[in-house]
Amino acid sequence: MADSQSLLKRGPFRSTWLRARKTRTQLVLSRRPRRRLGTLRWCGRRRLRRRLLQAQAAGADWRESGCPVSRAATRRPKTAAPSPAPAAAPAPSGPASLPIPPVRPAGPGRALVLLPLEQGFTFSGICRVTCLYGQVQVFGFTISQGQPPQDVFSAYTHSRLTINAVHYSMPEKSKKEMKREARALLRSHLNRDDRCWLMKNFSPLCSIVMLEQLKTPTVNFLVSHPGLSYVFVQESPTFQINSEHLALRSVGIRREKKKNGLRLTESALSAMEELVTVSCEEVDGCPVILVCGSQDVGKSTFNRYLINQLLNSISCVDYLECDLGQTEFTPPGCISLLNITEPVLGPPFTHQRTPQKMVYYGKPACKNNCENYIEIIKYVFSSYKRESPLIINTMGWVSDKGLLLLIDLIRLLSPSHVVQFSSGRSKYMPSLTPDHVDDMDGLYTKSKSRVRDRGFQLAEFTESLEFADEEKESPVVFTGHKLICVQSDFAFRKTPRNRESHNKVLRDLAVLGYLGQLQPPVPKPLCPLHGLTPYQVPFNAVALRIIHADVAPTHILYAVNASWVGLCKILDDVRGYANGPILLAQTPICDCLGFGICRGIDMEKRLYHILTPVSPEELRNVNCLLVGAISIPQCVFKSQHGLEGTIPYITTDYNFKLPGASEKIGARETEETREEKVHPKPKLYRKIN
Questions:
Q1: Which family does it belong to (predicted)?
Q2: Which of 100, 378, 509, 605 has the most CB atoms in a 10 Å sphere around its CB?
């Protein structure tokens, strides 16, 4: 019986294989396609047979080359009769036989890329890019020969980056003279064999790029957590292991398909060209550019690209962050003003920077307290010096009250240009023309009719703004803005169901990127967070405030322990109190100097143990700790290496019947929570020493 069943299973496989071989006797398949052929249905077999016949008619010699013919080369009209096989063309020699662009190993952890004009190299991973000859562009930033190398981060959480060879001006020279000049430039960087290979494949107006292995403490800290090693490089089976693959692997990158790279629409490129021209002319002063639109339309990508484009022509760009959930240069939950002088060549968690002014709002959204959100923006915006162009990033909440709040922001910040993104996948959003903004009531402001060519004033907002002395003499007149509409074709896979979880991952990565500043510089090994020495802060040296919830005074220390805290500076003097903790009745609008983790509380000595990358000089000014809804990523608690026994702050004995035990306080019991009761997952708890 077993033999008959095995024959039944084996029979169709062999008969199918024999029929396929009869149709094309000169084509040879390997063992793996032979296995796959037995699992195909009759329609798949017919399709495979038709493709094999087309390949045979096109003259494909599978015995010698061993590689299949491309689909585009074998596609012919169905009505056309099979034509005789044409004569085999001679194999091309020289540069045409190399992949575009060709890659060559240049020592351990180094690779050379020869980019013909207007060709690109799309990759994933991290590397240091040096332009040895010519000129290339990465994410809108131009790198020329002789300039310092740039660190590039191409992550799987965002669109892959591409190194593009761009046109550069060259005096009229012959190809021989250009080769002689390139050989002289490369002599100090490469050995003789590499120079000979480049000169052999040299073409006019090409660019030569050196890719080097890059290791940073932040990246090493990120990928050390389980489940985050895929962020930069994903291992997948490859069927073609050659010198190029090994060279790129030694660098730490991987070649990607061009379709996976970043692609901007014509309207986005046109808008950038106009904004760069306006910023460089400086006829009417520094432009203020406000970028708005719904979620997942490419606002953040546009901002990064625009910053890099502006840095090609000017020395610095100011950036006002008004998006609480997806911040660019700081941990989430902040409103900040930064002065950007270096290009932005990666996702937010790779370029956490110190702002010029920052306020910790404490929540990833402002739907429940929009008035405080407006007040914080006014406070931060007052530090803008109007010495360089300003880019304003806004939230993706543009429906109902969110749209009214955006109207208030436009009236408050008075941008010279409003870049409005729209997409066929996003919800409808009216065009924010100057007339529409004037005629529409905001959330806190009323509509005002603007007289043509005369402008209008907003006394209710301008009274609280602090300007420079020379600007106080003349009244601030808002003359409207220019609307630039950008049609986005941004490809994303987020849906309303998985958007929140995806955004949560990005927020956790931003927090981890900030904590990566605690690590020692490379090549020193990573140090776990529990192995670092925290600062000891007395109870009576700082005040406490829980931003996102009302907590009883007796439970304040439980809420602060093992929490993400904002290190702030308030004007009030808190040093007059003998004991602590010192509790604030209201949330202050104050400067935030950085962030840290309260990793423990010593009740006997009345000390907070704070772990933070903020310098000791700045910590002397900290006199307030703010705790918000931004939490420490759970991987920080779960992957504490080097500990023996019970891991601190983690338990499986979790009581879901306690008030507030679920994610939403007061939420009803769901099927998911019932499932967790039966199969409990590790939960976090806080314990005061």
A1: Belongs to the Clp1 family. NOL9/GRC3 subfamily.
A2: 509
CA-to-CA separations, 303 to 56, 163, 343, 507, in angstroms, rounded: 51, 19, 12, 18
358 falls within a domain: yes
Domain-embedded: residue 286: yes
d(CA 509, CA 504): 9
Which of residues 487, 507, 539 is at a domain's end?
487
168 exposed, middle or buried (CB, 10 Å; 0-12, 13-18, 19+)? middle
State the DSSP code for 648: T
**Residue among 651, 198, 302, 683 nearest 673 (CA):** 683
- 647 shares a domain with 663: yes
Asked if the structure places residue 681 within a domain, the reply is: no
What is the number of structural domains in the chain? 3
Count of CB atoms situated within 10 Å of the CB of 323:
22
From residue 627, how far is each of 528, 582, 611 by CA, in Å?
23, 14, 14
Looking at the fold, whether 568 and 616 belong to one and the same domain comes out as yes
The pair of three-digit structure tokens given for residue 84, joined into one six-digit string: 């005789």
Helices (H), ranges, 414-553: 434-439, 459-462, 469-472, 499-515
How far apart CA 523 and CA 77 sit, in angstroms, is 60
The model carries a pTM of 0.79
Q: Say how far apart CA 224 and CA 215 lie, in whole Å.
A: 13
Q: What is the CATH number of the domain that holds 605?
A: 2.40.30.330
User: Rounded distance, CA 291 to CA 151, Å?
Assistant: 27
Residues 536 and 576 grouped into a single domain: yes
Q: What SS3 class is residue 129?
A: strand
Single residue among 211, 243, 260 that ends a domain in this structure: 260
Rg (CA), the chain: 30
State the burial class of residue 603 (Cβ atoms within 10 Å of its Cβ: 0-12, 13-18, 19+): exposed
- Note whether 293 and 215 are same-domain residues: no
Residues 6+ apart with CB under 8 A from 200: 94, 95
Counting DSSP H helices and E strands in the chain, the numbers are 21, 25
Q: Is the peptide bond before 105 cis (omega within 30 degrees of 0)?
A: no
Q: Are residues 387 and 436 in the same domain?
A: yes
Same domain, 131 and 224: yes
Residue 377 placed within a domain: yes
Co-location of 213 and 309 in the same domain: no
Do 651 and 607 fall within a single domain?
A: yes
Alpha-helical runs (H) found in 24-113? 31-38, 42-57, 62-65, 71-74
Residues 6 or more apart in contact with residue 411 via CB below 8 angstroms: 437, 442, 445, 458, 461, 478
Q: Mean pLDDT by 10-residue block, N- to C-terminus, for the chain (689 residues)?
A: 43 48 48 56 70 59 40 42 41 45 88 91 94 94 94 92 89 82 88 90 89 93 86 70 85 90 92 93 81 91 96 95 95 96 95 96 91 96 94 93 94 94 84 90 78 43 45 47 88 68 91 94 89 92 92 90 95 75 92 95 94 94 94 87 75 68 44 38 41
Domain carrying residue 578:
517-667
The pair of structure tokens assigned to 515 is: 């904590």
256 pairs with which residues across the strands? none
